[in-house]
Specification:
2 copies of one chain form a homodimer. Chain A has 316 residues and is of the alpha/beta class. Chain A contains 15 helices and 10 strands. In chain A, the strands form 2 sheets. In chain A, strands 1-2-10-7-8-9 form a 6-stranded mixed beta sheet, with helices on both faces. In chain A, strands 5-4-3-6 form a 4-stranded parallel beta sheet, sandwiched between helices. The first copy, chain A, is globular, with a radius of gyration of 18 Å. Chains A and B meet through helix 13 of A and helix 13 of B.
Chain lengths: 316, 316
């Protein structure tokens, strides 16, 4: 059975006792500045400070007791690791997180604070996957992939599902940042399979310096090797297989934006919405600033993906 | 007639079409860290980014049309100025704001962006008041004082009034930062005149480097000359006459905290609540960190007073 909106609905029922239904925020000043109406789904206020709590919670609560007893493992630049550590702790399941050495300190600390075992590796996808494979071979733990897994995609889709209920009237566009593609593929599934006309188009937003999803989408072929150099540390993963398939089918377009614009967007969100978001979460608004004509007079739903970063190392 | 909770209720009815009923936020991590339960009233998400929108809106909407036509004037380190400019614009009333030269750039910009005339003066209370007196003499405008005025105090009290409705069960303590005393006096009035037992005690929170309210409260005599040097720019004013009287009558205690603790508290709010607050708003939580024994196991309501600051000039 291919993944469907029903899986997302089941995920919502499964995780809703544990996660926040995060608020939708607006800023009349940002709307005036960009000439459109934006609805920000504040998943920076989610458990563990990122939407990743949704997928991790769904994955862990879908496992049986013997699997939980052996524990879970993942690789993550940070937010998924923290989310899995948090979700595993809810079920008293052991958890190991493989993290790239260059992950932000705040994210390393968060993973450890939820009681997971942290293991560092080089900052490449190959190194991450090799470390995880070793751990699975040694310990018989279950991999909970950060994005390329049905239960994760269904969980991440619950943010868009909530948004459809929170914003009454139809919207023109939903936009999510794309790294590994869990959030974007889950969101696209929800939008395209929900009752007609609630949201018309789904766009991905990606940094120019991590443009593997954009290039693969345009080419019709997933790019699996890419060395990202973006400040948006949450978007440094390359698009997963399941994610690429869903995105190819359901996403209308992917837009790029520059590092400078991501920082500008981040400051705009901090200063106008008064909310702390990490660089990755600022990418959709940065895209809107770079492609103003596409979004003029539109009603746009944006998912603010997370709010975890080192306050001592701000990019301005 | 002395000011009463009925004035605050009338203020709420008058301003509620124009202001936000701001959310109450919690953080299980902050609660664990401090060993108590804290309810943060997020008035950093209020119009103009501060609770000051409440008082200014109440003051302006209490004026008659001929007064509004002549316009309003005030002196302010920033948030009250922006709030008055915003409220005056709602009524098409001219507005002049006298600001100290050392106010944060973000606050200067905000006042100008709402269409008010900005006039700079030296950073002393005497200089502020002299400039305002000149403008009133020349233009026949009405002073809307930043704190020492009944309509302002009643307006600021609406934050505590909302909180009493938003948090169901009884709380032990409500704490607000104290500068000129508008927020603290209005809050104290509400708590002490509301139905018995909803909140037991009201505390003020003040920086050691701006301890005029603390010293006057302990001495039983208002201190009118004081040179504050705190990072909490919103708390640099000295306590008003009406504010001192209400605080002496209704506030249970005032606690001090250090500059370093204010910065630590600010970072804790940014990193855990994912909300941008200015230094003044972090003072109550800083007090809790400094006086942990007073707050142990208590249910504490804190008003996050504002979120306006220069992101380029963070104190860490």
């Amino acid at each position: 059975m291919p993944l469907s909106i029903d899986d997302v609905r089941q995920a919502r029922d499964r995780i809703s006792p544990h996660i926040h239904c995060t608020p939708v925020m607006k800023s009349s000043q940002i709307n005036r500045l960009l000439g459109c109406e934006i609805f920000f789904k504040a998943d920076n206020l989610q458990k563990v400070g990122a939407f990743k709590a949704r997928g991790a919670c769904n994955a862990v609560f879908s496992m049986d007791s013997s699997e939980l007893e052996r524990g879970v493992v993942t690789h993550s630049s940070g937010n998924h690791g923290a989310a899995l550590a948090w979700a595993a702790a809810l079920c008293n399941a052991p958890c190991t997180v493989v993290m790239p050495e260059n992950a932000p300190q705040a994210k390393k600390d968060a993973v450890a604070s939820y009681g997971a075992t942290v293991q560092f590796c080089k900052a490449t996808m190959a190194a991450r996957e090799a470390s995880v494979a070793d751990i699975i071979a040694e310990q018989g733990t279950t991999l909970v992939h950060p994005y390329d897994q049905d239960s994760i995609i269904a969980g991440q889709g619950t943010a868009a599902l909530e948004m459809l209920q929170q914003v009454d009237s139809p919207m023109d566009i939903l936009m999510a940042p794309v790294g590994g593609g869990g959030l974007l593929s889950g969101s696209a599934l929800v939008v395209k399979q929900s009752s007609a006309g609630a949201i018309t188009k789904v766009y991905g937003a990606e940094p120019e310096m991590a443009a593997d999803a954009f290039e693969g989408f345009k080419r019709g072929e997933r790019i699996s090797t890419y060395v990202p150099k973006t400040i948006a540390d949450g978007l440094r993963g390359t698009l997963g297989v399941r994610n690429f398939a869903l995105i190819s089918e359901h996403v209308d377009d992917i837009f790029l934006t520059s590092e400078a614009r991501i920082i500008e967007s981040m400051k705009l969100i901090w200063s106008r919405l008064k909310m702390v978001v990490e660089p990755s979460a600022a990418v959709p608004l940065a895209v809107m600033m770079d492609h103003a004509d596409v979004f003029k007079d539109k009603r746009v739903a944006i998912i603010l993906s997370g709010g975890n970063l080192d306050l001592e190392q701000l990019p301005w």
